[in-house]
User: Which sequence fits this backbone?
């Protein structure tokens, strides 16, 4: 849904992507938006992945792999307990990915290192000194195959939808970013969900491409085409509200910071701050959905590794009831600090890099 030349002529783009009605055409093309978002996605992954690798290593030393026999979903968002299990969530700052450990071979990076860490800083130092700097980015390349395209689709669609709603449809008001963000995320999740399911199958069962094709056909024959979107519901339940709230708050916070700084256009620091604040707020408000999505994703990973029928998985409503029964309402809101620590810097780096990339193309 690209803007026509007539619609684009109504948009005047400022130094950091601000748009106002009137003025000469300065809008960047969708391809340039894709390049800017792709670059931002790579930078975000490089920045956030070491934090998650250290977190996993600290958890892994508490429970060696030979004790990790079954998968137990955690009652908090962002990670699962490393207790008698063989799957966990890995986050590269853009998406959560399921990793399934079988016989220790697919998780050697996290489970076979004997080094003992006394804390986060100690882990960073010892991993870098004894295992090399590259170890901090363990597991990153395979996840980028899904995360970068998803981010490109998401950010490009958001900009295009926002401008279309404002200048194509004529909608005005602060709800436009909320609507555009929610729709953009819905589209990105729908496109990427089957690909992430395929990646999980390949990683958990060590399938060749020919075997994977047979596996997918068998799954479709048993459960229909919609079986390729297993886990789509809980993911949408978390990501769509998060995205709507994030963009709604981002545009508001950015406008307020610009007003306080006496500028009409956001600079890098303003975008960074607005991204961090908006990401933290959205993360807290959508925390119950993240808890459900995490438990569901871990559950599906275990199903793949054990070959259990998809019909035996719990529904989103049942998962909510289980969490409420086990931990009460606190279970749905527990773990907000780890989620905020992970989400806020990732959002800040991503949006400021994206806006900087757009500004670069506008000046070119």
Assistant:
């Amino acid at each position: 849904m690209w803007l026509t030349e007539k619609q684009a002529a109504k948009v005047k783009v400022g130094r950091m992507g601000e748009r106002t009605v009137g003025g000469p055409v300065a809008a960047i093309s969708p391809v340039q938006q894709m390049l800017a978002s792709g670059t931002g996605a790579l930078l975000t992954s490089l920045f956030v992945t070491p934090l998650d690798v250290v977190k996993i290593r600290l958890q892994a030393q508490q429970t060696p792999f030979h004790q990790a026999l079954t998968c137990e979903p955690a009652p908090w968002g962002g990670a699962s307990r490393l207790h008698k299990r063989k799957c966990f969530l890995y986050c590269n700052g853009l998406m959560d990915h399921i990793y399934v450990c079988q016989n220790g071979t697919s998780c050697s990076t996290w489970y076979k290192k004997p080094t003992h860490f006394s804390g986060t800083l100690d882990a960073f130092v010892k991993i870098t000194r004894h295992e090399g700097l590259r170890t901090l980015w363990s597991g990153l390349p395979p996840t980028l195959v899904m995360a970068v395209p998803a981010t490109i689709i998401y950010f490009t669609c958001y900009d295009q939808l926002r401008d279309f709603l404002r200048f194509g449809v004529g909608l005005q008001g602060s709800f436009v970013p909320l609507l555009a963000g929610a729709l953009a995320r819905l589209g990105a999740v729908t496109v990427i969900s089957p690909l992430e399911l395929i990646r999980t199958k390949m990683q958990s069962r060590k399938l060749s491409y020919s075997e994977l094709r047979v596996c997918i056909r068998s799954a479709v024959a048993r459960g229909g085409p919609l079986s390729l979107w297993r886990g789509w519901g809980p993911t949408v339940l978390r990501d769509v509200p998060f995205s709507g709230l994030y963009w709604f708050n981002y545009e508001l916070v950015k406008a307020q910071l610009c007003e306080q700084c006496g500028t009409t256009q956001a600079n890098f620091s303003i975008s960074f701050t607005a991204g961090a604040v908006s990401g933290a707020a959205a993360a807290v408000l959508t925390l119950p959905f993240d808890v459900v999505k995490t438990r569901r994703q871990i559950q599906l990973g275990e199903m793949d590794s054990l070959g259990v029928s998809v019909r035996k998985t719990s529904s989103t409503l049942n998962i909510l009831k289980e969490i409420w029964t086990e931990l009460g309402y606190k279970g749905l809101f527990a773990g907000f600090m780890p989620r905020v620590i992970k989400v806020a810097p990732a959002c800040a780096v991503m949006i400021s890099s994206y806006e900087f990339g757009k500004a670069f193309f506008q000046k070119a």
DSSP finds 13 helices and four strands in the chain. Strands lie at 11-13, 19-21, 87-91, 96-100. The first helix runs from residue 5 to 8. Residues 29-57+112-363 form a domain with the Mitochondrial carrier fold fold (CATH 1.50.40.10).
